[in-house]
Amino acid sequence: MALAVVVMAGCAKGPKTPEQAFLKLERAVAAGDGAGAYEVLDQPTQWAVQSTLKDQRLQRTIISAKYPEAEAQKALAQLRAAEETDPAQFFKRVDDERHVVQAYRKRLGAVSGPIKSKIDGPDTVWVVRQQDGMPFRFAKNRDGTWGWSELRGDWELEKDRAQHAVKTVQENAKLYQKTEGQ
Length: 182
Known about the structure:
Elements (H helix, E strand, L loop, with lengths): L1 H10 L6 H14 L2 H6 L3 H24 L2 H9 L9 H12 L1 H4 L1 H4 L6 E7 L2 E6 L6 E5 L5 E3 L3 H30 L1
Antiparallel strand pairs: 1-2, 2-3, 3-4
Helix pairs in contact: 4-5, 4-9
């Protein structure tokens, strides 16, 4: 059992330290790379993105099958990012629309110089370039890797909205079918 845990920890993908995670995030933010930023998100945030994508894809399926053409086109236009099947590409499409990653560029400061870390709890650390950057928050994942945790709250809200929207889309589909049947 202990050997399995050691092997799993050794096989974990992702940054092994908050500083490594910061360097990956720094490159993604500097390049405006939404997919690269997704790869360095902490696991709870990635799971929220994945759940949002799953629910938005379900909405697209229901809308395409059950809505009248005119209403379907309007509704699907709001869910274009969910055309993607890969969560990183979905995140990138959402980022392309909202410019979230780009908004963090100012916080980077100069992308050179020493890195400083400040522990914020047993599994959270703030990391910054000492010269002129602003700190970024990282959390330790279950597998021992580190990920950027600052978008977690936003994506938890997105996940909740998507779950609620599935119910709304299902109810609307029933109403459209009922109206069509009359």
